[in-house]
Amino acid sequence: MSLHAQLSPEALQRLHAQRRNSTISSVAIAVLTVVLVGLLLGVFLLPNMVKDVPVIVTYKSNIQEETTIQEKKVQTSMDRKPSSPSSSMAKVITAATTSATAIPTPDVDVSTPSLDFGDGNDFGSGWSSGEGSGGGFGNVPTAMKKRCSKQDRLARLQESGGTPECEDAVINALQWLKKTQNADGSWDKGHPVAMTGFALLAYLGHCETPQSEEYGDSVSRGITYLVNVGLKNDDRLTNKPADNIQWVYDHGIATYALAEAYTLCHSINVNIPDLDKVTKKAVEMIMDGQADSGGWLYKYADSPNGGDNSVGFWQIQALKASKHTGLISESKLKKHSNKALKFLDSVQGKDGAIGYRNDATRSPGLTGGGMLAFQIWEGSDANIRKGIKYIDKNSEFKWGTPSANLYYHYYNVQAMINYGGSEWTKYNGIFRDELLKAQEKDGSWKQSVLHGPANTHMATCLATLMLEAYYRFLPGSAK
Question: How far is CA 52 from CA 17, 47, 49, 104, 262, in A?
């Protein structure tokens, strides 16, 4: 017989409640233990996990609005090849809002950029070379580079006997030309081809190209006008009919302008459609039109012993300008220039004068044109010395009188500055200030004693070219 103890229901219920409480207490203790351990770990490890936060400095900009310099849009068709951007074509954007982040500028040593144009051929042997500045004009022929930098232009003015007022007068004249250009890109009404050639030469003499900020549109439209004339007129650069005896003036002056335009445009990678084609054919027409005598006559007529020097000088200058285009072989150009100099030698008077045709006493004011021809095509020093002596002895310049005929002095100033020395100093003193005083308030010059069509446009262009002579080409020193 065995005995068994048995709990009452109430006692059993209390036992189960006690077990539940024990379990809950154990879980609570475990959770608290984990939390405590976590806090302890945080206290010891947190300092090592905290990193320094950099202070961001902000600056406020004083600029209140956005300014953008837009590219000049030319109304003519031009293809521009890749090139280094010029100052006039660059876009500049300034911020209108403040930046939340300041970007430090590192200290870096930067070498001073070179102001040299690089090596290049001279305007012809015997002419001195020089260096200039002005980005984008590295391929411009050496003797033409000084015109393409304001700093160099002013330096040449000072070195050659010019003054800042000469440069101011040129700028005022270029502004006048800008205002008086016709809608089709030409200038003047009676002789638009020749007068457009004159205007372009004045612009190009200041190195104003299709990329120029102020005058680019005028230059582009002027070039395009002459190109279109050539394309529509069997390569003849004139608005005159073929039977007009004087159309060769138009052609020579316009060819001179297009050749310079092509050289500058090609140097800065600006492509004007058909400029190369028209220029090449125009130069070839001049060479084909040279008379057997070596001179040139109206209508490009032939003659065994004749030549009109007033016509011929423009053809000679056009041939020289074409030398740098690369469109015509130098040997061919030299052949025709030699013939021209041979003719001029035959018509030069004993006193050094060169006149209208064979007679040196008729229009001897053209002597400067002959001397310029000898200089740019490496002619005889003896011819040059005689001619310079004649100009030195006979030059006067009094505005309002025939002595100030700009058609003659346009040549004289180039021949004399190229010769240099005391002869140039004397001549410069004769014409410079007198010409400056004669400029009108609107920037033009008015003269009625010009050789040929007397008008304000022609006088303004010739006067401008005279004042650009200080830097347009680098003169030689040989006498």
Answer: 55, 11, 10, 20, 65
Burial of 394 (0-12, 13-18, 19+ CB in 10 A): middle
Q: Is 378 a member of any domain?
A: yes
Between the alpha carbon of residue 134 and those of residues 80, 81, 146, 435, the distances in Å are 19, 19, 9, 29
Q: Which domain holds residue 176?
A: 142-468
Cα 208 off chain centre by: 4
Find out whether 247 and 240 touch, Cβ atoms under 8 Å: yes
How far is residue 380's CA from residue 374's CA, in Å, rounded to a whole number? 7
pLDDT in tens, 359-389: 898 999 999 999 999 999 999 999 999 999 9
| 366, part of any domain | yes
Radius of gyration of the chain (CA): 40
Question: What are the tens digits of pLDDT across the range 406-456?
Answer: 999 999 999 999 999 999 999 999 999 999 999 999 999 999 877 666 689
How many domains does the chain contain in total?
1
**Contacts for 243 with CB less than 8 Å, ≥ 6 apart:** 299
